[in-house]
Write a structure and sequence with these properties.
mainly alpha
């Protein structure tokens, strides 16, 4: 049963009471178990974490992982691991904000900051979603081209129709969207399992790749790709997305029910992000085992990777599996970006229009620039555009991470659900690392 949007909400530290909940058309629509075993209760909460995890394995992540693996072998696996740990911590704060305060991150920003702060934050979020859409549009279009030989320009236009897929699935209930995403993730995992088996990587080298190295900071090109991996993993729009998605569960309004909901939703996102790490690591391992080991150290284009896989692995099925997994990733990512766009637009601007028109409007605002850039740049620049889009995401991260840490550390805003000091300290260190790495990237760029 759906919850009342106002009941039990923490309002003491907020300037106004929340009137419209996040994703109002599906708010509290997924029933949860009030009794039984932990596993039975957890089943009702499994879903949002996988929608969030989709963003951590989108086509932009493919480009950065392929480029990093082909150029530096297994060395950047440590960046994928550290980025994933950062993501787990930050997503736990999103869960705490969404359930404990009853607000998504966009609503919290609009309530807490004056317009001269909240509007730039909204624009930053839209830039991040556009960068995400750029990667998804390109990736899906390339997947369609590789499998069905559809021209890239036609493919990017087809991708713009993904909003209708979301509307169609949601007509049957939000669980159908989650089921579709999980099914696509299963296909992606199966495709990479076969490709990794064919590649037969050096597992000793893989384990050593997870160990930190100072070379990442010393080598500018390595740092650029590392920040691309960071931006593709700890994605800004995912912080807005998760703080809204957790509210689709009908978990109740008592303190005990909310505490349990925070715990179960955090378990859900942690499991899902560990799965995302496996997929991301698989992409980088595949690139290192095939391209780097054969001396092809400049593979960044997805089409390049597709054409090289058959001769290097000696199997005709490898390129097809690569294309299928890419298309599934693109489809999944466009669904979650559509939902994130709705949360960001509604939360910051408090739009009052019908759900289908609101979703179509927010999607077009984000995807049109991506479609124009993709068609303008053409096929030859897709790989560099993908990597650039992920670096843009990294540069936008502080504008979402810092407010998230501030809100969840505030007892006046969170009440009994305020984040523990150790968790706030950990998240603050993560924010400082992100800001420092971004500052170094900008300095290196200015310095030539």
């Amino acid at each position: 049963m759906a919850r009342s949007p106002d009941a039990g909400a923490a309002t003491r530290g907020w300037r106004r009471e929340r009137t419209v909940p996040s994703l109002a058309d599906v708010y509290g629509s997924v029933r949860t178990a009030k009794g039984g075993s932990l596993w039975r209760k957890l089943l009702a909460f499994l879903g949002p974490g996988y929608l969030v995890a989709v963003g951590y394995m989108d086509p932009g992540n493919w480009a950065t992982s392929l480029a990093g693996g082909s150029k530096f072998g297994y060395s950047l696996l440590t960046v994928a691991l550290l980025s994933n740990i950062m993501a787990i911590v930050l997503q736990s704060l999103c869960t705490r904000l969404g359930v404990g305060a009853g607000r998504d991150l966009a609503q919290a920003c609009r309530d807490s900051f004056p317009r001269w702060v909240s509007w730039p934050l909204w624009l930053s979020a839209e830039v991040a979603i556009t960068a995400t859409d750029l990667a998804e549009v390109i990736g899906t279009a390339i997947g369609l081209n590789l499998l069905f030989h559809i021209p890239l320009e036609i493919g990017v236009i087809i991708t713009a129709a993904d909003v209708f897929l979301v509307l169609a699935l949601q007509a049957f209930g939000f669980r159908w969207i989650e089921a579709f995403v999980v099914a696509m993730l299963a296909v992606i995992a199966a495709c990479f399992a076969v490709q990794i088996a064919l590649a037969d990587p050096d597992w000793g080298g893989v384990l050593r790749g997870f160990a930190p190295t100072s070379e990442i900071l010393a080598n500018r090109e390595m740092l650029y790709l590392a920040l691309g991996i960071l931006g593709a993993t700890v994605m800004p729009h995912n912080l807005y997305l998760h703080s809204g998605l957790v509210q689709t569960r009908g978990y109740g309004e008592t303190v005990q029910e909310k505490r349990e909901a925070i715990k179960l939703a955090t378990i859900d996102s942690t499991i899902a992000l560990c799965f995302a790490l496996i997929i991301n690591a698989s992409i980088l391992i595949l690139a290192a085992a095939t391209f780097h080991n054969s001396g092809q150290t400049d593979v960044a284009e997805l089409e390049q990777a597709h054409s090289f896989l058959q001769p290097l692995l000696g199997s005709a099925v490898a390129p097809t599996l690569f294309a299928i997994a890419l298309l599934c990733c693109g489809l999944n990512s466009t669904i979650t970006a559509t939902l994130a766009g709705q949360i960001v637009m509604e939360g910051f601007l408090d739009l009052r229009i019908s759900p289908w028109l609101r979703r179509l409007t927010t999607r077009m605002i984000a995807i049109l620039p991506a479609v124009v850039v993709t068609i303008w740049a053409g096929e030859k620049a897709t790989g560099q555009l993908l990597i650039l889009s992920q670096v843009v995401l990294s540069l936008q991260l502080p504008f979402a991470v810092v407010p998230l840490v501030m809100f969840t550390a505030s007892r006046s805003k969170m009440g009994q659900f305020v984040a523990p000091r150790w968790l706030t300290a950990f998240a603050a260190v993560i924010a400082a690392v992100i800001i420092a790495l971004n500052a170094k990237l900008v300095f290196d760029f200015v310095a030539g």
